[in-house]
Amino acid sequence: MYGTLIGLTVVLLAILGVLASVTLIENRQAAQLAKIQPHTHSEENASRTAVVYFSRSGNTALAARHIANRLDAQLFRLDAPNYAPGLPGLAYALKDATLLKERQDALPEITPAKIDLTPFDTLWLGSPIWLYSPAPPIWAFIENSDFSGKRVILFNTHNSHFSDEHIARFKAQVLVRGAVTFEHRTVLRGRMTQQITPEQMLQFIDARWLGTPLAK
Fold first, then answer.
1. How far, in Å, CA of 160 to CA of 129, rounded?
2. Over the stretch 178-212, which tens digit does the pLDDT of each residue have?
3. Which of 3, 12, 108, 204 has the fewest Cβ atoms nearer than 10 Å?
4. Strands (E), 60-204
5. What's the CA gap between 177 and 170, in Å, rounded?
């Protein structure tokens, strides 16, 4: 029994160590990436393209700003207070990402909860991948949205893999809400200690996603 307790303690400490390391890396990334490519869209420009995104460590936020700048699109950030940087936010993120696989109505509170999408023809929806699926906040956004007549493009930044099953479910939810087309684009950043640079990520987006500028 004593040996078992020691073993469990070692495993628990190892898990906490990994989570602490991930948190430190995420916090450092968020601070560094926030300074790259501020959004430059003028609100006076009646763009027909919008970029809506959720980001925790700043990678998806950088991708979203880059896309919005390239397409002169309006940019909307989704906030989810439960997932703020730090160990509690990471714990909530893992818990809710797991729960969402079991219950499709297990959605977090986001701000804004709803956006008037009437002025837009094309919507880019950005999210990291958590446990092989888009993060819960972007699911909460589509739950509250009407995509009638719109072209929807989901884009994800991710460390390792995503599940085709979850993407197919996301697509179905978007189409049932009126979207006329759905596309999925991803960029693999790599594991925390072996990630591509922000510049490489943006070059990938330019080459693979934006090689031919999309109509606004």
1. 9
2. 999 999 999 998 776 678 899 999 999 999 999 86
3. 3
4. 74-77, 122-130, 133-134, 151-158, 181-188
5. 11
CA atoms of 215 and 153, how far apart (whole Å): 13
Amino acid (one-letter) located at 103: R
pLDDT digits (tens, 9 = 90+) for 123-156: 999 999 999 999 999 999 999 999 999 999 999 9
Closest CA to 198 of 19, 24, 28, 41: 28
Rounded-to-integer distance, Cα 67 and Cα 73, Å: 8
CA–CA separation, 32 and 40 (whole Å)? 19
Q: Which amino acid is at 90?
A: L
Tokens at 117, concatenated: 């999408």
Decide: helix, strand or coil at residue 161. Answer: coil
Does the model's pTM come out above 0.85?
no
